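Chain X:
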Amino acid sequence: MTATLQPLYDPREAAAIASWYVCAKLGMERYELALRGNETLDESLMQEVRRDVERLAEGCPVQYVLGETEFYGLSFTVSPAVLIPRPETEELVQMVVQRYAGSAPRIWDVGTGSGCIAVSLAKSLKEAKVFATDISSEALTVARGNAERNGVGVTFVCHDMFDIENLPFAEEKFDVLVSNPPYIPASDRAAMHRNVVDYEPAQALFVPDEDKLWCYKALASLARLVLAPGGTLWVETYHDYHEEMIDLFARHGFSEIRSLQDLNGRPRFLTASLTIDH
């Protein structure tokens, strides 16, 4: 399988994908690969494997081929209707969990996609009241399934973050507004791997070069309306945006604006709080 994938991936990445696929498909641990490598598969399973390998060789992400992935220690269903959760987003979840551990925050995850942020927060913060929205009804179907799969209660509603006239949770005030919105400039698309641009939903990834902060403008306006006094906005970002975003949030009346790095030392997250008397 590794050789089949190498025209598209470098040898190390091809080997990692092959290992991931085989372990997940056959329900084995990685250390078992060498021990069970010569096992004969029944013909029906072998046909599935052949079809899957063809899809992988075409560039389809292994997560979509398997129909699932792991995020923050939990198992999530994924499909081409949702972005594949990334490790950096796990870091965002961990920051929120650490900040609100032992409390009962009201949380709104904007642009929930697979529900990975909302479900992980609901699982880790047992007393939290978690809400989540997305513009895509297909994504919300996946997210609802993931909440059920992981045994948590999250309120999901279809909503466009740009629509501040029709708020889905009009009676609520939130302690946390969290989001991993689209933030990759459209001009970066040409340099990205085909397994991303050809398969993952573009509306969850890309923003216009001429208005690259458009989602953050919407989030800042939304947060002004729905955050409780002292509430905090938490967002994942593109590393080049931070100075502009700090200025944006300051102009929207936020304070305690902090730029935070990911584990690779790159600016990746921003938090901004509303003053008590907003």
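Chain Y:
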Amino acid sequence: MTGLEGIFTVGLRSLVAVLIGLFIGMERARHGRAAGMRTHVLVCLGSAVTAMTGLYINEIAKTGDVLRLAAQVISGVGFLGAGMIILKNDNMIMGLTTAAGVWATATLGIAVGYGFYSGALIGAFFFLITLTLFSKFERRKKNTLVVYVELTEMTQLNNFIKEAKEKCPAEPTFRVYAPISGSAGHLGIDVVMDRRKGLHADEFLELEGVAYAFEA
């Protein structure tokens, strides 16, 4: 990790970590999740740098456990992921996939930091396959469609419900709770519909006062 060759290695591994975090983060951001591109890039890059630091210390001091710092990343990111898990008023849990994704991204970053490129790239490939392909299988098994909608003002609730019922062929039901974004004055709503007749998240974005809308 020293000299020109070492600098090139650090740069290459950092770049690979950024790209892996970027691709995974893009998929999460496309679904409107709290942990998007920047979060996944930072987690992956930070994990890679931590692994490289362990190698550097071992190379310079000729002592120390190169796995110790990486082990702390695994446990530390676990606490970060726990903060992304949300328990709604109706005991419905959200954020498990995002939390698991951030943790897995950290492990990929560690692999890159140690130069285990094949493991990191193959792992990232199957990671993305799991997020994209398997999610479609899960949705097909469910007849109920739940779209999370966040209004910019609580006073818009009645108008939103009226418009949603007019536009939706199926009779939707609504669950109201605190907004996921935590923005003052906002209101979070789960719109529960028949998947075959329900509206898509993009259609809710066209309604007045809607700040965010994505499939839950």
